[in-house]
Each structure stands twice: as C-alpha cells, then as structure tokens.
Amino acid sequence: MSTTMRTDNVVPNDEHVVTAKEALEGLYLRLEMEAEVRLVAAALRAGWTADEALDAIDQLRADDTKH
Questions:
Q1: What are phi and psi of 8, to 5 degrees?
Q2: How far is 46 from 43, CA to CA, in rounded Å?
Q3: Distance (Å, whole) CA 41 – CA 30
Q4: What Å distances lie between residue 51 and 30, 47, 56, 58, 65, CA to CA?
Q5: Residues near 46 by Cβ (< 8 Å), separated by ≥ 6?
Q6: Buried residues in 22-38 as b, exposed as e (16+ CB within 10 A)
Q7: Residues near 56 by Cβ (< 8 Å), separated by ≥ 6?
Q8: pLDDT for 27-64, tens place per residue?
Q9: pTM of the model
Q10: What is the Cα–Cα distance from 27 to 41, expressed in whole angstroms?
Q11: Are 55 and 42 in contact (CB under 8 A)?
C-alpha cells in the first residue's frame, strides 16, 4: 500500500516567478567570463602579453557598443 506525504510548505508559483533577465543573467555572466578566459589564453599562446590581450578585448567591447 502506498502512501503520499503531504508537504505544507510549498511556495505558490506566483511567489517565485523570476524575470527572463534574472533567469539568464548568471548564465550570461559565466559564459562571458569563460569567453574572456579563452580569448586571453589564445592570445597568450600567440605570443601576446596578458595586458595586450585584455586591451584588445576592451577595444572589441568598445567597438561593439558603437554599433
């Protein structure tokens, strides 16, 4: 014979709804960080300094915001 346990502390769905931004922001930031790490690593392998790589990434971001 099976029995079910009743849970009294389930939060109603209207109390834990998040916006799309809230749901995606953490993932977006992790992906952005991973992309930057990979770009710097590739630049280092190509003989750039870390400062040169970071400056290039900053320039790409600045160019991207102009468009």
A1: -90, -15
A2: 5
A3: 16
A4: 21, 12, 9, 10, 21
A5: none
A6: eeeeeeeeeeeeeeeee
A7: 43, 48
A8: 999 999 999 999 999 999 999 999 999 999 999 989 98
A9: 0.63
A10: 21
A11: no
